[in-house]
Amino acid sequence: MASAPVREWSSLQQFPAETRSKLFELLGKLKQENVDTLTILVMGKGGVGKSSTVNSLIGEQVMRISSFQSEGLRPTMVSRSWSGFTLNIIDTPGLVEGGYINHQAIGLIKGFLLNKTIDVLLYVDRLDAYRVDGLDKQIIGAITDAFGKKIWCKSLLVLTHAQLCPPDGLSYDDFSSKRSNAVLNAISIGARIGKNDFEHYAIPVVMVENSGRCNKNVKDEKILPNGDVWIPNLVKAITSVATNSSQPILVDKKLIDGPDSNDKGKIWIPLILGVQWLVVKWIQGSIKNDIECGNDPFGSHKNKPTTTALQPPRMRGIHTAAAR
Question: For residues 142 and 104, is the Cβ–Cβ distance under 8 A?
């Protein structure tokens, strides 16, 4: 499956000086935390900007993008090294095909990730989508089924196409907040996250604009309509997730295969055996009580012959003669 060799991260030098300085600072923080390899998994629907986000992070076009062609059918990993640190970013095909979850794509992704460790999941969607529907929750549920609920402790929500004018007179920050909360709520429902599951963890949200029309500040850094410099913000959020207290997700064979079908229902065996034992003891007790009370619980009296005392015949003739 597609995996390019590790190359020197020379494109770091292509970022504006201010952005480059911030990136070096964040990469230095990872090394201080003894993180010398970082693997990022990028997932979401097709056409939301996954590959474009990978290109923006690397600083060069490592993923082919075309508005008139469908996404690749297999995962692709791009690796870059800098001063002893290696960054791996895994781009994946869209998880929806014909309005349904593409389970074949999920299977290919799991197979590609065998024996790899996921340090950060970028779940990508669009900021300019105005609603969340049942399909979004199904996508999130499919990711959860594939990698476990704890994958969301190592996740980051990325909302693309962030260079927009909000509708209905909303401010940019208000619209961004409403859209973020809607997607986060879908993640909570789709991943079946309870109130106490991740009590001390909130999924970070970062807005990005990958297109060439993204505005820039006086330092030539790409900025959003609210003035945020988004590339350093994205890398900062990735660093925060990578170094949080949750363990990275190791994709081993057990995770890929899922629960053993032979193990399904084994949890109920002790309960079933216990109920059976109670029923047997109850039947035995009932039989014993019936016997002690003189009752035949098996109804065996029905098979015994019935006996009736015989009365001597009346001898009418003899009595008559005596009377005479």
Answer: no
d(CA 133, CA 182): 10
Burial of 246 (0-12, 13-18, 19+ CB in 10 A): middle
The Cα–Cα gap between 141 and 197 comes to: 16
For residue 108, what are the CA distances in angstroms to 75, 154, 306?
7, 21, 80
The end-to-end CA distance of the chain, in Å, is: 130
> pLDDT of 116-138, one tens digit each?
999 999 999 999 998 899 999 99
Q: Which residues pair with 75 in a beta bridge?
A: none
Question: How far lies 310's CA from each of 306, 307, 313, in Å?
Answer: 13, 9, 9
pLDDT tens per residue across span 239-249 = 999 999 999 99
pLDDT of residue 279: 82
Round to whole Å and give the CA distance between 66 and 309: 108
48: CB partners within 8 A, 6+ apart? 94, 124, 125, 126, 160
Kindly list the distances between the CA atom of residue 302 and the CA atoms of 141, 167, 287, 297, 299, in Å, as whole numbers in the listed order.
64, 88, 18, 12, 6
